[in-house]
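Example record used in the benchmark description.
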Amino acid sequence: MIPREILKKIRQIELRTNRLVSETLAGQYHSVFKGQGMNFDEVREYQPGDEVRSIDWNVTARMNHPFVKKFVEERELTLMLLVDVSGSGLFGSRAQSKRELAAEIASVLAFSAIRNNDKVGLILFSDEVEKFIPPRKGRRHVLRVIREVLFFEPQRQGTDLNGALEFLMRVTPHRAIAVIVSDFIGSPAVPSERRRSGLRPQMMLLESLAQASSTMLRHANRRHDVVAVQIADPCELQLPALGRLALKDAETGEVVEINTGDPRKRNAFAERQAKAQTDLSRLFRSAGIDAIQLQTDRPYAAELGRFFETREKRRLRG
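Model output (structure tokens):
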């Protein structure tokens, strides 16, 4: 029996995201993520403007006037959600934690998928694959996906996207849409001078996404359509001036004390994070992966809409 408060939370997310899906995003999802080919549907009489190459010459010969073949898109796709459930996802300096925002994004994408008759699967990962839900269709299945993203209790706290991508390749042999929902924060080794400088709180971004090499991302993107959704909190990008704080790394347990009242420390942190974001964006571009950053203090609907529009325009140009 699922506790009432969990059901209430899931229902709230369903209500918030369903309207957005119905009014906007399901159609954009359909336009952006295309099927793998075209299937023959029927023949119909030729009309001015029809492509001559689509004429069915056998039927035309029998009927003594031209008929054309009509094809429909092979629509059914599989959406695989790779959701980071490592310790850093529990952080939230506003009303919503990163894990809660990740659940809403997963909900929006999953409901968009089933509106288009696609399957939805889920991989929850920390520094190991914690849970795998095979792709299926239907509202009940999507509600289970939302519940797992929100309330699953991982056994480990670290982050290894590389391992999650390898698992994806093993369990998903056919081409799929693979959406990585993560803060892309990890626990690389840090030189002692950086630790002394106070630039090693839990929100430090992976400088080169060490656990997910560019080679692995490119390999995954060749087989699947990989999209990266970065979930960030504003305090991970710029430290607030709150005086002396003790910050605990959610993935390693390390505690660092930093004087956030010192503008030099805040500026150094902001510069470091800006460089990390630039490096991360460069990594995604080199792997040919589309990426979007969403923040816990900002509405995500417009950002997702713009992302889909930009991706669709680029697809049409190509």
